[in-house]
Each structure stands twice: as C-alpha cells, then as structure tokens.
Amino acid sequence: MSSMMSKLQLHASEKSSLTSTITSLSDQVSSLQSSLTSRLAEIEVLKNRVEVTSRNNSILKLDNAQLIQEVERNNLLITELDEEASSIQGSSIISPHSPQLLKSYTSKISKLETTLHHEREQHNKSLERLEEKEGEGREKENAVIVMGHDLREARRREEGLIKEIEQLKRGETENEVRGEGELERMEAVNRNLNKGFYVREMAMREEIENKENENIHLKQQRDLAVEEMKRVTKEMCELMVAFEGGGLGLEGGEEREGLEVLGEEDEEEDNSV
User: How far apart are the C-alpha atoms of 61 and 55, rounded to whole Å?
Assistant: First the structure.
C-alpha cells in the first residue's frame, strides 16, 4: 500500500510539474507573440518610411536628371558663345559696335558661368543629400532585413515552443491515462485486500464466538464438576464422621444394625447350604 501511495504521489507531482511547465511555456509563447506583434508594427512603420524614402529618392533623381540636362544645355550655350566670341575676335572686319557686342557677350558668359557654378553647387548638394538619403534608405532596408531575420527566428522559436507544448500535453495525457490505469489497478487491489480483510475478520469473529461458546461450555462443566466434588466431599466427610463416631448418633447405630443383620443372613445361608 505504501508503494502504491508513493507511486500516486509521484504521478501527482509529475502532473503538477508538467502543468507548471506548460503554463510557463504558454506565458513565454504569449510574450513572444506580443513581441512579434510589436516587431511587425515596427517593420510596417519602417516599410512605410522606406517607401517614402524611395519616392523621395525617385523625385531627387528626377530633379538631378533635370539639373544635369540644364547643365548640359548651359555648357552647350557656353560653348556656342565661346565659339561666337572667338569668331568675332578673330574677324578682320570689326564694326563700330564690336566692343559693345564683345562686352555684352563677356557679361553673358560671366553670368552663365556664375549660374553654371551655382547650379553645379546645387547639383552637388543634391547629390550629397541623395547619397545621404540613399544611405539612410539602405540602413533602413538593412534594419528591415535584420528585423525580418529576427521575425523568422522568433517564428521558428514560437513553432518550436508550440511543438514542445504539444509534446508536453501528449506526455501529460499519457501520464494521466497511465496514472488513471495505475489508480484503477490499485483501487482494485485495495478492494481485494479489503475483501480479504473482511473475510478474515468474519472468520476470526466466528472463531472467537466458537471459542467463547466452548469456554462457556467448559466453564459450565467445570462448575458442575466443582459442585459434584463438593457434594462427594461432603458425603465422604459425613461418612468419615459417622465411622469415626463409633456408632454415635442414630445413623451410626442403624448402620451397625444393618451390618449385623446382613452378617446373620449370610451365616444362615451358609448353614442351609
């Protein structure tokens, strides 16, 4: 019985341990799911930022393309002006208005060069901003990649935890079935033991009753024997008192007379023979 109780306690402790483990794993899964949800929200925000950055980069690329086209047009214009100025300066026939024309061309060229320099600076700044934004976009894309990797790893861990929980649940079910079978077997053994104890108890009670009846019968026989001994002892004492008294008393004289009569009858019988 003690071994059975210890087995029951062991099954109960195993079941309690499995239940606590499953509860802990369920809490971990819930925490992991909440963490995954927050990470997914962060990933969505980063994706939106990346999309905005990509659109901005596209716009900047278009602006830079337009700037490059404008610079190319300005370069062509400068080249044309330079060629025209060279042709004017190298001409052998100079009109009265040639100095003003050269001056105007020179001022136009300087203005165009200033504009070109300014536009080149703006273009370089735009390129720098574009590179910075592209770098930020790459960093965000890398962050998205890393977070996607973390998300896949978290999902893999979640699947592993779910599988472990399922295995623990199956083990708990098997332990419950095994424990219930062991409990039923021990209950059957206990019933058999109780039945055996009951049969033995009834047999012992019957034996005790038989012994008690036998003891009562023996006591009654003993009491009868004691009474008989008392009676016989009393009679012997009375006879001894009568014989020792030498015929004292009526009973002693009558006994002697009886003996004498018996003696005379015996003698008569002998004589007749």
Answer: 10
List, in sequence order, every beta strand (DSSP E) within the chain: none
Percent of the chain with pLDDT over 90: 7
* Res. 146: pLDDT tops 90: no
Closest CA to 85 of 72, 69, 104, 70: 104
Provide long-range contacts, Cβ within 8 A and 24+ apart, for 115-121: 115/74, 116/71, 116/74, 116/75, 116/78, 119/67, 119/70, 119/71, 119/74, 120/71
The residue with greater pLDDT, 73 or 236, is 236
Enter the tokens of residue 129.
Answer: 């901003």
Q: Which two tokens stand for residue 209?
A: 């009753």
Alpha-carbon dihedral sign for residues 148, 154, 159, 160: positive
Class for the domain spanning 2-89+99-211: mainly alpha
d(CA 272, CA 254): 27
Q: Give CA–CA dist 86/109, Å, rounded.
A: 13
Angle, vertex CA 187, rays to CA 183 and CA 188, nearest 5: 120
Instruction: Sketch the domain layout of the chain as residue ranges.
Output: 2-89+99-211, 214-272
Per-residue pLDDT averaged across 171-184, rounded?
Answer: 74
Q: What is the pLDDT of residues 19-71, one digit of tens each?
A: 777 777 777 777 777 777 777 777 777 777 767 776 776 776 676 677 677 66
83-125: pLDDT as tens digits? 665 665 554 444 444 566 566 667 766 776 777 677 677 767 7
Choose between 57 and 266: higher pLDDT: 57
**Alpha-carbon dihedral sign for residues 22, 27, 31, 33:** positive
Helices 98-244 and 249-272, axial angle in degrees (round to 10): 60
C-alpha 18/C-alpha 174 separation (Å) is 12
CA distances from 126 to 67, 139, 140 (A): 10, 19, 20
